[in-house]
Every structure is written in structure tokens, then in C-alpha cells.
Amino acid sequence: EAGHLVFGLLSGYRFRSFRVGGVLWIRTDKGIKRTRLRLAGTAGQCLMSPPEGGEERISCGWYLMGGVLMSLLSVLVALALYYAFRSREVLAWFLRMWMIIGAATVLINGIPLRLMEGDNDGRRAWVVCASREAKRAFLAQMRVNDFLSEGGRMRDVSAEALPEEKDLSNPMTAALAVFHANRLLDAHRFDEARAEIDRLLSADSAIVGVYLQLLACDRMYLAALDGETERLSELRTPARQRFFKQMRINPSVLRTGYACALLADKDSAKAAAYLARFEDVAKRYPYAGEIEGERELIALAKQKGAQSNG
Asked: d(Cα 59, Cα 289) in Å, to the nearest integer?
């Protein structure tokens, strides 16, 4: 992640956020804030603000391959130190292990591969650099993230900044379709959101796994809200439930858990536990606009529950 940061800065990008494990540093209008955020399937993440100007003038390769380049640099440093200190047995052993692990990291992240959690750095860079549409989609995602980091809401992202995307064969353009579904849900355009999410979940697409699971989470919320018992049962698979446990500090997962407990399971105690957990997470969650939107969806579920009981 430090490599993405360093090579991003050298390419004209600005720091936006840096996460290692569950610890996140994010730039806001009040300076850099330290908070907590965890995303299943990722050990860290570095997000940058792209330079101003047209997409043809912005370099993406150095930023996307920064992690691989930093790993390669560490291998070269270890190699130089090994030749300097190879007579010291313990240190030489440590440096050999450093080189082996570093070289493996370079290969696993550098050779374009699609892994279980999504594309590695090499494939992501190859996809973005090989396609103008993918590069446009990548920069659009980064600019949307900038907007959200400053407290914005998905519903307020303009159609120009986030055009509706039909090409699901490319992971970058497919991600824009996910963002569009998120915008429909945040705008409470529930009929459109339901149809779009069902389309994305059933399509043969390049949408990465974590996005698909979070789309299913949103669809579960809508199913609970509308009393779609069969659809909710289809979506609540054991594998998905395990994923949601891994994402138990994600506000949308907690919001859906609350709605399902309250409306589908009729378990007020379980719903109260989800709500308490949500409030705890909301205190330190870095995206204020997202929390505002989730509170509105929780309020709708609470209102629906009151009507059912009344």
C-alpha cells in the first residue's frame, strides 16, 4: 500500500485515504483523521485523488503498479544487504526469507491474475491501461470516492460523474453499474434499485465478489422491507451469512441485519442488538454521508415494523 501511495504522489495524485488492516487514515476538510474501517478480503487499501484534467492526460499505471514496484524494490534492497552481510548466518537467513517472500509477492501481484477476491494489481493495471472505457470508469470511481469522503451522498452524485453503465464484462465498468445501483437505493428509488440489483446478481459479469455480496445485502433489505419472504430466503445462504459476519462493522450489513431481524424474523431483541452495533460503528465511521443514508433506511424499516405491529 505504501507503494501505491508513493508512486501515486509521484504521478500527481493526492492523498485521500490509507488503510492497514482495520486502521484508516483519511484526508477530510479538517485535516487527516485516524479511524477504523475493515473490508473483508483486503488487508489494506490506498485511495488517491486523481489529478485534474482529461483522462488522456492522467497516468494510471504507476499508481496501480506501485505496490508491485515497492515489493520489487524491497527485494533488491534485501539482495544488496544479503551480499553485504552473508557471513552473518542469522541475518543472511532473514534476508533470504525476505527475498523469497518479496519475490513471491511481486509475482502474485504483478502477473495479471483474477483471484478469489478480485483482480490483482497487475490485472487491474492491464485492464485500465488497455481500455479507454476502463480508464474512464476507474477515474470516475476515484472521484466518486472523493465526493463521499467529503461527506457526500451517493444519491447526489451527478449522472455526468456516474453514468449508467451496461458493460458488465470489464471489472472497472461493471463497478460503475454497482455504484449506480447504490445511488438508486440511496435516493429511495426502490423499484428501480430492486430491478437493477436483480439484473446485476443474475448476470454473467466481472463484478468482484465483495461488490456482489454487498449488492445481495441491499437486495435482502428491500426483500425484508417489502415482505418478499421467498426472495429473502433465497438470498440468505449460509455462505452469504458467513460473509456478513466478516463484514459485521459495515453499516449496510448492520442496516440489513436490523431490517431482517425486525421485519422478517420478528425478533425485536435481535433487531435492537443490530441497532446498538450500528450506532457504535457510526461514531467512528469515516463517511458521514453514508451513515446519514443508512439512518434513513433504518428509519423506514422501523416505520414498517411499527405499522405491522399496529
From this structure: 30
